[in-house]
Amino acid sequence: TAYALWEDHQVSEIIKVDNGACVMELLEIADDHDADFEEAVPMAREELLQESRKKAARKLIDELLDKIKKGTPFETAGEEPGAELTETGYFARSRRQIPGVGFSEDMMNTAFALPPHDPVADKVFEVAGKFYVIKLNGRQEADPKGFEKQKPYLKLRFEMQRQGEVADSWIETL
Predict the structure, then answer these.
(1) Strand, helix or coil at 120?
(2) CA distances from 51 to 39, 48, 56, 57, 83 (A)
(3) Alpha helices per DSSP H over the chain
(4) CB within 8 A of 103, min separation 6: which ones?
(5) Of these four, 18, 25, 114, 116, which has the most CB atoms within 10 Å of its CB?
(6) What percent of the chain has a predicted confidence (pLDDT) above 90?
(7) What angle do CA 52, 54, 58 make, to 5 degrees?
(8) What letter would DSSP give residue 97?
(9) Which of 150, 136, 21, 44 has its CA nearest to residue 90?
(10) Banded model confidence at residue 161, pLDDT cuts 50, 70, 90
(11) Euclidean distance between the first and final Cα of the chain, in Å?
(12) Contacts by residues 86-92 (CB-CB < 8 Å, ≥ 24 positions apart)
């Protein structure tokens, strides 16, 4: 779709993406430019360094998951050099985002499926360039009194969600 834009400040049609819709605007068309060797070396070096760092991080997190699955306490594994142990606190599936992590439907579904007797996920998750091993610390049941207080907010939220779904359906017909 971006390649269909040919003029400066031309705007695309509405594009449906995984979690909504977007439009693109062409800001500027740059001239074709093949980098010479002197320009390409630093760019290639940086790309290789980033790839190397990512592989090392992935190896570390895979090793941590293996240690955890073999009995090393989660908290102890989190003290390894290069690892960072953080807690999200309780979160609701309806929020669609995991606090401090971001959006990952796979991680969210896995977290809510973890049983208390086996609280560590069997796989590593990558979200926004970071790797995660997740552990269920507990579940909190919904509070009926809290629901009554939140009911007007929830009703409005679900109405807005429904409006978004109707808009998405309409966009698909364009």
Answers:
(1) strand
(2) 19, 5, 9, 10, 18
(3) 37-69, 74-77, 105-113, 144-173
(4) 19, 96, 97, 127
(5) 114
(6) 20
(7) 120
(8) S
(9) 136
(10) confident
(11) 15
(12) 87/137, 90/138, 90/140
Task: Count the residues in the chain.
Answer: 174
User: How does DSSP classify residue 127?
Assistant: E
Amino acid, res. 170: W
Neighbours of 107 (CB within 10 A): 19
User: Following CA atoms 140, 143, 148, 151 in sequence, which dihedral angle do they give, to the nearest 10 degrees?
Assistant: 10
Distance of alpha carbon 87 from its chain centroid, rounded?
16
CA dist., res. 81 & res. 72, Å (int): 15
What residue spans of 70-174 are helical by DSSP H? 74-77, 105-113, 144-173
Spatial contact of 44 and 51, defined as CB atoms under 8 Å apart: no
How does the average pLDDT of the chain come out, rounded? Answer: 84
pTM of the model: 0.61
Mean pLDDT over 136-159 rounds to 82
